[in-house]
Amino acid sequence: MEPRCRSPACLFLLLLGACGFFQSCAVEVEVKDASNTTCLYAKWMMKFLIRYETNSSDYKNITLDLPSNVTHDGSVCGNDTQAALVALQFGEGHSWSNNFTKTNETYQGDFVTFTYNTNDTAVFPDAKRKGPITVVVKDSMLPVHLNNVYVCHNADSFETENVIQIFWNVTLQAFVQNGTISKKESRCRADTPTSAPTVLPTIANVTTASTSTLSPTPTSAPKPVENPDTGNYSLKSGNKTCLLATVGLQLNVSKDKPVLININPKTTTADGTCGNTTATLRLNDGNSTSIAFTFVVKNTSANVPKFYLKEVNVTLFNHLNGSVISNADNNNFSKWDTFLGSSYMCRKEQTLEINENLQIHTFNLWIQPFLVKENKFSTAEECFADSDLNFLIPIAVGMALGFLIILVFISYLIGRRKSRTGYQSV
């Protein structure tokens, strides 16, 4: 059995000096055995998106990134009878580990364990629940040949209750043979090229360069992105529906240049939580986008409860280059406000400003996050834009009818006057 990696011979290097735009450092771990021979090697980037309850019973979404002062106590080389283990510790009581098992010909990831400590007031300043919280998820990594390096540049994620773990730019070899990192690669499915380039159909203004060496052909102007399809989503608590939503969603990402992304209802799944005073709807469009809407209940000055949209969190994965485009959060909304027990409707396009680089456009919105009865929307409170339209239609009809009445009255007066003139002439 290989000894646990406790000596300085076990190297943990923070390379690439990169805590770039996403504020998550690249890490490189090299585990060596007692004879100073490399037995496990890993280099990757990762970050954590965590949702937690505050002292005021609201929920917040935070991003936990790897700092530069990460330790690796407890990492294990592994052998035929013992799993290999990469273990990290960082911040105020946070830790992460991944263990690997092998057969005669292959190795693969087994379980990923992540512990975050809500006693870390710098990250969780107002957490209601205090102390370490651990989540465990089965690793989805496919078996890799023993003498191959596993490589995956595209983003991958594991989602458990209240936690999303995101990984990208992964290079890994467990059970290294003869202390030498292999030059043979086993690529993840997301990195494997296909016979034709894959382009997300919902991303606007994406063109592919011609591989021909002949004179360039003229290009036509990009077509405008159409409005998104409307999706129908619901959540259940036990056997009862507790949240209903109908909406078309479009993201506007403008970090470098504006890119519009339509959320496809056919590939989008819904999950979340229902409560008496807080409800969250999370929509996941495959592996490309995750959007969370948080609603809360408030009492008005007349002590009449109302609900409203308080927070929106967006995580966007770019499959064109395999990176995480953005994790953005705005918890200062006061939108879609209506009385508890009613629903909110707005057929007109609305815009939610998440931050300066990210907006969400909504279309044909109909939402009810509380007190759903018989799986149906309650009476809807319509938005101002829709109300304007509803007011204008009867006004226009009324004006037309009024104009018609005036014409009839004038015609009557003219006809009567001609009649009187006829009598006098006789």
What would a concise description of this structure say?
With 426 residues, the chain is mainly beta.
Descriptive keywords:
8-stranded mixed β-sheet; mainly beta; 7-stranded mixed β-sheet; 426 residues; 26 strands
Describe the structure.
The chain is mainly β and 426 residues long. The chain has one helix at 384-425, and strands at residues 11-13, 27-32, 38-53, 59-65, 84-90, 94-102, 106-117, 132-138, 144-145, 149-152, 156-160, 163-174, 185-187, 231-237, 240-253, 259-262, 268-273, 278-285, 289-299, 305-318, 323-330, 335-339, 343-346, 350-355, 358-368, 380-382. The strands form 4 sheets. Strands 1, 2, 3, 4, 10, 11, 12 and 13 form an 8-stranded mixed β-sheet that branches. Strands 14, 15, 16, 23, 24, 25 and 26 form a 7-stranded mixed β-sheet that branches. The protein starts with 10 loop residues before the first strand and ends with a helix.
